[in-house]
Write a structure and sequence with these properties.
The protein is an alpha+beta fold. It folds into three domains: 16-263 and 404-463, FAD/NAD(P)-binding domain, CATH 3.50.50.60; 268-399, Alpha-Beta Complex (Flavocytochrome C3, Chain A, domain 1); 473-595, Up-down Bundle (Methane Monooxygenase Hydroxylase, Chain G, domain 1). The protein has 16 helices and 19 strands. The protein has helices at 16-23, 29-32, 44-56, 94-104, 111-131, 163-181, 246-253, 317-321, 331-343, 359-385, 440-463, 473-491, 498-512, 519-539, 551-575, 599-602, and strands at residues 36-40, 59-63, 81-82, 156-157, 184-187, 190-198, 201-209, 215-219, 222-225, 258-259, 264-270, 293-297, 314-315, 354-357, 394-403, 406-407, 420-422, 604-612, 615-622. The strands form five sheets. The chain has a five-stranded parallel β-sheet with strand order 5-2-1-9-17. α3 (44-56) crosses α11, α4 crosses α5 (111-131) and α13 runs parallel beside α15 (551-575). The two termini are 45 Å apart. The structure holds flavin-adenine dinucleotide. Flavin-adenine dinucleotide (FAD) is lined by residues 40-46, 63-66, 72-74, 76-81, 163-164, 191-192, 226-228, 238-239, 243, 246-247, 283, 401-402, 424-426, 438-441, 444.
Length: 636
């Protein structure tokens, strides 16, 4: 019987983490080298954890399916990373960052985790600057800041439009230092396919060597998953093409509860879908909303080119509806409103797009000024669309981008499976029902650099897990399970490709479990996903062999997992009879079309226990708000 214990420490919110750090048991420096820790994932969360745990003296094995740790999806992050430094002197503080994040998440996150995140945010910037991360600077040398949605202060640190890449280079260099010192060993081109439990504890993993197809078992005294989010369940998303949910999902099937799977983020500023043959969507960073103004024509069906539509016939709908935050409302609000205006027939460029217009910014700071701030993003736009955004407004539309749901973890970032820790986007921890821009990088690095080094030590020294033999029966059994699945997949000799099925899953999810959801649509989605899963297991066709590089096989395993996860997303959305953040249920909205939360019944984390495909048990972690008053979110 699973019992969720958040392990939030007692005491005042601003003292919890400090006291907890002091009370946790330490591992003697000489003993650290006796502990092996497996980390799956070398994105910002995984690489920062590997670097820090290696530096402390633990023996770390880091796994990634990429050919280089440096290729993790984190490299794509554009806009920036939040911290409460208050360099702008605009009244920012740890408490304000905490407050904005809890409010931005529509009061569905755990207060204590969010406070800690805000508290360590400043350490992250110091750490990264010390590593040499080239953050943008003001003329006088101080670090520059810009604004992101859901905040009225400027607290976002950035390196042009390539913040993720620069942060990852910092983490990666630190990790490589430990590789040289012998504390970290990197295993590239290895895909985690199963978690191994010994006496109920996470003590190892089974991986497939993606080049040779060979299965390998690795043991350790603790396992960390830092394997990213599951936006690619929608087929089209802004995530890297390879990002997937398999690691989290296989751990879920081994007992780790999956929390809030229906909380997904559809980002408002992406390039619109342009056809069925498309395999990827492209993000235009939210930072563009600092200077770009979003609008559509006031009249439905107005097909005039933008420069022929006079000012008084334009609707700057975000500025009109939310004057206090304007174009910088949080993502869920901006996305929903883009959908509304397009549903009203006021969308542009074929109907499913809105304008992001820099004309005012060009007048204010000149084209060179805009280029300085966003040059690479403008280049991306021009290269992909063939249009010059310095001459005509960009056209944008919401797209799946980030997943707030993930494996459930307690305050120590440990799942309900002892010894299995989950970091970064793979866990559910800090963003509630909606993540604010520039907060994912903050969370991944907070988890990796500043939280896990303490909490994993406490686990190891308290629980004292023994070393286990990777040839033991539990490993053999896990290898057999993986092998059986590989064989079953390769035996399928139907007519459809894996991508065809994945695309159809994506259509079901975006239509019925996307920006708005209804009871009827969700029930239909569950039925359709079940049927599609049946079809997958009977009518898909794979080519190639197990003992070689086989990308069809890789994708098939991931899509098999998505087909189960997709159903759980719909089930979770159906269970939550309220609207909050990215989860908008049509039956629960205010007369103005805003999300209607139902705090009396739904102030909980929904953590699902896997029973078998299509069957889950719901466990609830009640959320208590002692420092932020539950209120209707208003950005007006
Ligand atoms: C286009 C884009 C722009 C963004 N911009 C910003 C931004 O400006 N600011 C911000 O805060 N956030 C941003 N985000 C979100 C942010 O980039 C991600 O949430 C964050 O980088 C996730 O980091 P991570 O370490 O958790 O996972 P990832 O970076 O996704 O890394 C996952 C790692 O796990 C490995 N892995 C996964 N599964 C397996 C497996 N089964 N076996 C072996 N290895 C596995 C991968 O190889 C990889 O190394 C953006 C996201 C996108 C898509």
């Amino acid at each position: 019987m699973i019992k969720l214990d958040s392990k939030v420490p007692e005491g005042k919110i601003d003292e919890k983490w400090t006291n907890h750090k002091f009370k946790m048991k330490l591992v003697n420096p000489a003993n650290k080298r006796k502990y092996d820790i497996i980390i799956v994932g070398t994105g910002l969360a995984g690489a920062s954890a590997a670097a820090t745990l290696g530096e402390l003296g633990y023996k770390v094995k880091a796994f990634t399916y990429h050919d280089s740790a440096r290729r993790a999806h984190s490299i794509a992050a554009q806009g920036g990373i939040n911290a409460a430094k208050n360099y702008q002197n605009d009244a920012d503080s740890v408490f304000r960052l905490f407050y904005d994040t809890v409010k931005g998440g529509d009061f569905r996150s755990r207060e204590a985790n969010v406070y800690r995140l805000a508290e360590v945010s400043n350490n992250i910037i110091d750490q990264c600057v010390a590593q040499g991360v080239p953050f943008a600077r003001e003329y006088g040398g101080t670090l520059a800041n810009r604004s992101f949605g859901g905040a009225q202060v400027s607290r976002t640190f950035y390196a042009r439009g390539e913040t993720g890449q620069q942060l990852l280079l910092g983490a990666y260099s630190s990790m490589n230092r430990q590789v040289k010192l012998g504390n970290v060993e990197i295993f590239p081109r290895q895909e985690f396919l199963d978690l191994v439990l010994v006496d109920g504890r996470a003590q190892g993993i089974v991986t497939r060597n993606l080049t040779t197809g060979e299965l390998e078992s690795h043991s350790a005294q603790a396992v960390i998953l830092a394997t990213g989010g599951y936006s690619n369940v929608f087929f089209l998303s802004t995530n890297a093409m390879n990002s997937n949910a398999t690691a989290a999902w296989r751990a879920h099937k081994k007992g780790a509860t999956f929390a809030n799977p229906c909380y997904t983020q559809i980002h408002p500023t992406c390039l619109p879908v342009h056809g069925e043959g498309q395999s990827k969507l492209v993000l235009m960073s939210e930072s563009l909303r600092n200077d770009g103004r979003i609008w559509v024509p006031k009249k439905a069906g107005d097909h005039r080119p933008p420069n022929e539509i006079p000012e008084d016939e334009r609707d700057y709908y975000l500025e009109r509806k939310y004057p206090a935050f304007g174009n910088l409302v949080p993502r869920d609000v901006a996305s929903r409103n883009a959908k509304y205006v397009c549903d009203e027939g006021r969308g542009v460029g074929g109907g499913r797009a809105v304008y992001l217009d820099f004309a005012d910014a060009f007048k204010r700071i000149g084209k060179d000024g805009v280029k300085d701030k966003y040059g690479n993003l403008f280049d991306i736009y021009a290269n992909i669309t063939g249009e010059d955004p310095y001459e005509v407004p960009m056209r944008i539309y919401p797209a799946p981008h980030y997943t707030m749901g993930g494996l459930w973890v307690d305050y120590n970032l440990m799942s309900n499976v002892p010894g299995l820790f989950v970091l970064g986007e793979a866990n559910f921890s800090d963003h509630g029902a909606n993540r604010l821009g520039a907060s994912a990088l903050m969370q991944g690095l907070s988890d990796g650099y500043f939280v896990i080094p303490y909490t994993i030590g406490n686990y190891l020294t308290t629980e004292k897990p023994e070393k286990v033999d990777p040839k033991g029966p539990e490993f053999k059994e896990a290898e057999k399970n993986v092998n059986d699945m590989v064989k079953k997949l390769l035996s399928l000799n139907g007519k459809q490709t894996v991508d065809e099925i994945h695309k159809r899953l994506g259509h079901i999810l975006i239509d019925k479990v996307g920006m708005s959801r209804s009871e009827e649509g969700l029930k239909e989605a569950i039925k359709q996903i079940r049927e599609l899963r049946e079809e997958f297991w009977t009518d898909v066709k794979l080519v190639g062999k197990a003992e070689e590089l086989n990308q069809t096989l890789e994708r098939a395993g991931r899509v098999a997992d998505f087909l189960e996860l997709g159903e759980l997303m719909a089930l979770d959305a159906l269970d939550r009879n309220e609207s909050c953040g990215g989860h908008f249920r049509e039956e629960y909205q205010t007369p103005e079309g805003e999300a209607l939360r139902r705090d009396d019944e739904y102030t909980y984390v929904a953590a699902w226990e896997f029973k078998k495909a299509g069957e889950w048990e719901l466990h609830k972690e009640e959320l208590n708000f002692e420092n932020v008053k539950l209120a209707t979110r208003s950005y007006k």
